[in-house]
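Discussion board: Methods & Data

I've been asked by a reviewer to show the raw model output for two of the constructs in my manuscript, not just the figures. I'm not sure how much to include, so I'm pasting the format here to get opinions. Each protein appears as its amino acid sequence followed by a line of discrete structure tokens. Is this the kind of thing reviewers expect to see in a supplement, or should I convert it first? Here is construct A:
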Amino acid sequence: MMYKSLLLAAAAAGASALRMAPRSRLSTALRAATAENPDTKWAPLSRPESEYLIAEELVTNDEEASALADRCIDEAIRLFDAPSEEGWTNVFSEDGINVESKPLHGPYEDSGVLIVRGVGTVPASADKFYDWQVSREGFQSIDEYLVNHRMVEQYKWKSAEKNGYTEDDYDLMMNRVEWKYPIKRREFVALDTTDRKRKILISKSALHKDRPGGSKYQDEIPLDEKEFVRAVQYYASRVTPIDDENCQLEMVTWGEMCDSYSAYWVNLFNAHVFITPKFQRFREAMSGKKVWEESKIVDNAWRIIKLLPSIKPDLGLFSMKSDFVRGKMKVD
């Protein structure tokens, strides 16, 4: 089913390159001047043609982690609740899952990569599914590379505690994960926020002093690609009860491996290879199946490329400067 959707999407979309807008960045000086809410530079955050995503930001203490977590919660709720008719394009609907996409403005705008959201049902109560999702087994189903997952620092969510939260109601930590990737591994560093009261989970790319470098989409810290290429990602989910045996799951995701290939291809994969398989894994897990396995997502991506009749690895959508293309063509 996933291959069928991807082939149809590729045929419909064609191979036209996406227009890249000039990059706009929020300078350190401006961030200091707008410390209460650095996002005001990009207001309105939801526009008819685009949405805004918070960029990578340096976190050095509990206060900064708390302030960023608060803004990430607001951001996630905005993206969950944004009406479909306000610029969201339906990508596909199948197996009870509806997937939509929309362009971005702000620091990630020139990537050309769309933000993607999906909504569907999971056969479990909201409490059961959310508790499982934020367990180690649940995180393994979200991120198949959790075997390489390491905690960098844990924080107190001070602003949440002022509003009555206890340490049982949340987790707030900086984590890193290595992804196997052709030529050079990718590293993700993210502030992960678990809000058990609102049943929201967020993983947002961020910066930390103990992990040198950042991605090409920020200018706060110099690039450091001696060992890894820093990739960027965003994942948010919200679980809402339907009845005692079913819940609604909303997911919003955005990701970029910081490689040299077209955003067209990234957009296909973010919609078809991330959203739908996650729902399938979650549903299988709630039926009692052990679903964790070492990810083969890179190999699967390459197989699907070679299945598409209108796209070949040596055409314009794929630069021969790409680690992904060069690495996989060597293997083949």
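Construct B, same format:
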Amino acid sequence: MGGDELAAEAAALKQKIKDARKEVCDTQMINETGSIEPLKISLRIRKTLRGHLSKVYALDWASDSRQLVSASQDGKLIVWDAYTANKVHAIPLRSSWVMTCTYAPSGNFVACGGLDNLCSIYNLKTKEGNVKVTRELAGHNGYLSCCRFLSDKQILTSSGDTTCALWDIETGQQTTSLVGHEGDVNCISLSPDGNTFISGSCDTSSKLWDIREGLANQTFYGHELDINAITFMSNGMNFATGSDDATCRMFDIRSDQEIACFGGEHIICGITSVAYSKSGRVLFAGYDDFNCHCWDVLKVERAAQLMGHENRVSCLGVNDDGVALCTGSWDSFLKIWN
């Protein structure tokens, strides 16, 4: 078979899957939630975290719901105390072209990476009291777009080389390479049980992967442009994506379907980041227009707009206990809302 024949067969199979999905898609979220009262949301800025000197690109909450780590192109990784707005650690990076950062569930490590193609892991709890690089994980052939700890011994990364990878931190080796996307992988999110994760890509698709098997079990389509952000709901059955096509979409893993699309004519810019509230009723999304929109998931409508930044909202996250939202921006500030 020639290349053209294979491409035609692949296109036909994709269409078959699309048609089968359509056949079993008997409803949309919006059709089932008519009787539910709309949400009223009023969030205020409680703290502004000042310390970065350039664009903030990424943030991640610690599992204690008090500390968080942020990465900026000023070449610093800063660990903050969100209660006091004080810096706990300011870590100088070897490369200032950082795109992602993450906090280990144990609270012992933070990691980051970017255009250096490396995932650098820092130990916060050294005997000497200073923070230092414990590992630099080299193996990707493209920029590091996202990283997430499974434990102190394992970390998951995604890259512009179209792959995701699972690493053994102690040996510094890649244990699994996860191949399947046809474009840069921009974002990943771990399931609550840690056995699966989802990825979003420039190929406009998102995939559900089983870490144990190293395979993609499901692929979800719907977006028209790059997917920049992805997040699991706490139930592990749903996830949301944010894209350059100016929409967020919600997918259901059980029914293999898109069940809601959040957008409108009033929104014409891309989405950089997404996060659910603890209950899953609200989807927070950061936009290129300097705002954070709060979507009512059940009513599929905007419930509030958070205005406080003076440049693109590049990252956001809700802490584990669900009481605070943190937004980070190209204006160099992070803001804590509740």
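Answer (T.O., handling editor elsewhere):
This is acceptable in a supplement if you add a one-line summary per construct. For B, something like: The chain has a mean pLDDT of 94.
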